[in-house]
Structure formats: structure tokens, C-alpha cells
Amino acid sequence: MSDMVLRSDTDGIATLTLNDPDTLNSLSDAMLAALSRALADIAESDARVVILRAEGKAFCAGHNLREMQAMRQAEDGGAARFADLFDRCAAVMAQITQLPQPVIAQVHALATAAGCQLVATCDMAVAAESARFGVNGVNIGLFCSTPMVALTRNIPRKHAMEMLTTGTFIDAARAAGLGLVNRAVPDGALEEETHALAATVASKLSRAVRIGKGAFHAQADLPVAEAYALARDAMVANLSEADTAEGIQTFLEKRAPGWTQ
């Protein structure tokens, strides 16, 4: 595991920490590579849920602008390098969505541009009241088109367009109201509240949650009839699990389930 992304595991909860505070945890080439490796490792593990947090004064300040400016030295002005960067970033976002385990962002501070995209991509998010969120690339002449993809799948379009075109930041309470995060909590309670949410998820039947997360993302952009067909198949697969049969029977018999997973 790279020092740029740290991992710890406790009671089925895998915690990943972005650890490049000197660049405000920017999504540099090295950070994207380290995060991708960490997610790949977790996908093969028996972790039940993931917390994504960060060290330093920012959760994530987006792409590394110094690296991006250096890319301009190429003969094509950096176009190919830029495209590759955004493809690699999109691939990491897809890893989060496709990860079997739910991912909860623990946002203690600023999440801007691709950092806001990272929060929007996570399955859930808990934010400290002092956290701020923005897609503010437009302030330096760069519309946040790739962060826009995740943002517009989280909050109403008119509010997304306002954020994208004005570069204005919103606070955690506003982010919760719009649906970008699940809840805003006092700064001192952030770790406790995030861990409590993760522990609740970790206490459920892991196989059921994995089936459910996959179906959740797969059906989201389908027409209703296709979504129901996909969800039907997920329910059938879930019901075919021995532990699910045990769970239903124990509910009927009013006893604790003897799950194996």
C-alpha cells in the first residue's frame, strides 16, 4: 500500500485515507494510481464497507494543476495527456461504483472540482459542518465538465448548473439539502457519525449488500421496465442465498440469525 493512500481495517470496515496534504490531496498521477490499487485490493477482500477520508486542510482539491500545466510541453499542447488523465480519473470513479462494498466519504474540509466529483461518486457521504463543496474550475477558465457527470447524478440539474457556471461553494448543510451528502454533522462528531453509519452497513448480510449495490447502480439509468427486470433477477439471486433463507426464517421465528457471512 502506498503512503499516499493509507488503509486500516476494523470489524469489517476498511478505511482509506488520502495522505498527500501538501497538495491538498490532489488527484495527481500518483494519487490516482495509489487509489486505484487500494480499491482493487479491497474488491478482493472480505471488507464489508469502506470509509474514504483524508488528512490535512482539504478532503481533495481536485486535479493537480501543476502537473496539468507541465503536460502542455508536449507537441500537441498536452491534449493527449489531458485526455489520458481524465480517462484514468473516470476509471477510478468507476472502480468506486463497481466496488462490491459500499463506499462512504468522510468529508472533513474542502472538496473542490474533481474532489467534489469524488464525494459525489461515493455511495454515501457524511460531512463536517465546516466542509465546503464546489466545482469552481470556471473561476480559472476551466469548466468542470468531468466532475459535472457525477454531480448531475447527485443533485438537481439547475443547482448543479449554478454551481458549475458560478464557481460558488456551498456549505455542508446545503450539500445535505441538495443530496450531495447524506448528512452534515458537528466537526467533532464527524468520525463517530461516519463510523456509526459504516458499522450499521457492516452489520448486515454482506452478500445481500453486495448484490444490492450492484443492482442499485446497474438499474439507475435504465428505463423503468428494464430496471424492474434487472431488480427482479437481483432479488431472485438474493433469495437463493442460504443465509437469506435463514434470515427470513429467523424473522418469522423471532430469533437471531445464524449467518455464515
From TrEMBL:
Keyword Lipid metabolism set for record: yes
Source organism phylogeny: Bacteria, Pseudomonadati, Pseudomonadota, Alphaproteobacteria, Rhodobacterales
Functional description taken from the UniProt entry: May play a role in fatty acid biosynthesis and insulin sensitivity.
One GO BP: fatty acid metabolic process
Keyword field contains Transit peptide: yes
GO terms, molecular function: hydro-lyase activity
UniProt protein name: Enoyl-CoA hydratase domain-containing protein 3, mitochondrial
Keywords: Fatty acid metabolism, Lipid metabolism, Lyase, Transit peptide
InterPro entries: ClpP/crotonase-like_dom_sf (IPR029045), Enoyl-CoA_hydra/iso (IPR001753), Enoyl-CoA_hydra_C (IPR014748), Mitochondrial_ECH-domain (IPR052377)
Family: Belongs to the enoyl-CoA hydratase/isomerase family.
Alphabetized SUPFAM superfamilies for the sequence: ClpP/crotonase
Cited PANTHER family: ENOYL-COA HYDRATASE DOMAIN-CONTAINING PROTEIN 3, MITOCHONDRIAL (PTHR43602:SF1), PTHR43602
